[in-house]
Amino acid sequence: MTLGEFFSTHKKAAVAFSGGADSAYLLWAGTQFGAELTAYIVKSAFQPDFELEDAQRLCAELGVPLRVLPLDILSVPGVRENGPERCYLCKKAIFSAIAEAAAQDGYTLLLDGTNASDDASDRPGMRATKELGVLSPLRLCGITKKELRRLSREAGLFTADKPAYACLATRVPTGKMLTEETLRRVERAESSLGALGFSDLRVRTDGTAAKLELLPSQIPMAAEKSEELRKIFAEFAEMTIAERQTRD
């Protein structure tokens, strides 16, 4: 099945939109094949502001309506405790909120940007979307991450080479209580590092000490900007620097 064939039989849908490369390409493809789409993004303490800004920019460029749904994710039972089921519970709450809003707007079909490269055995969120009946056109059509990035570049989407961004909750060790203050501190640090020229980074913390994970090519820059890093991490008691791994 191709995306053209998918959208020829699914002409009206709500799209769970994160602002990332996957859902951005899905949204663009749907508009190219004449589907009637509305994008929905959930704003919670787990999402940094730049994700919402990217979502708003892309939807404006595509002329697709965007609904922003505030969600107090830390009030969802089991999420604040940050146990092994946290990701599943979070995704179920997010997609449930989107499904409810979409139904109010007259949509009976909800899509997400899961692609063919995503490993279902390593994605608790995919369990939640399956339970809620969410369809994943990119996965159904066999479109991999590498392919959708290529197609996104051809389409001129600014998200084409945007690094994958796991939610802020992944910066805190499993079992360590999540607080709004810890998440804000992480977001401030990562935003400040981005302004210094660092990219595809992670600031991990247990609430006091912090570990900065950088791409190997950017570690020398960290040494050059040690004074700026010291100021950024003043809120944390200790800081270490490690090579950035591809998995969160």
Question: What is the share of helical residues?
Answer: 40-55%
State the shape.
globular
Backbone CA Rg: 19 Å
Strand content: 5-15%
Q: What name does CATH use for the topology of the largest domain?
A: Rossmann fold
Q: Average pLDDT value?
A: 93
Spatial order of the strands in the main sheet?
Answer: 3-2-1-4
CATH architecture of the largest domain: 3-Layer(aba) Sandwich
Head-to-tail CA distance between termini: 31 Å
What would CATH call the homologous superfamily of the largest domain? HUPs
Poorly predicted parts: none
Structural class: alpha/beta
Task: Just give the CATH class of the largest domain.
Answer: Alpha Beta
Order of helices and strands: HEHEHEHEHHHHEEHHE
Number of domains: 2
| Helical run tally | 10
Multimeric organization: single chain
Number of strands: 7
Query: Main sheet?
Result: 4 strands, parallel
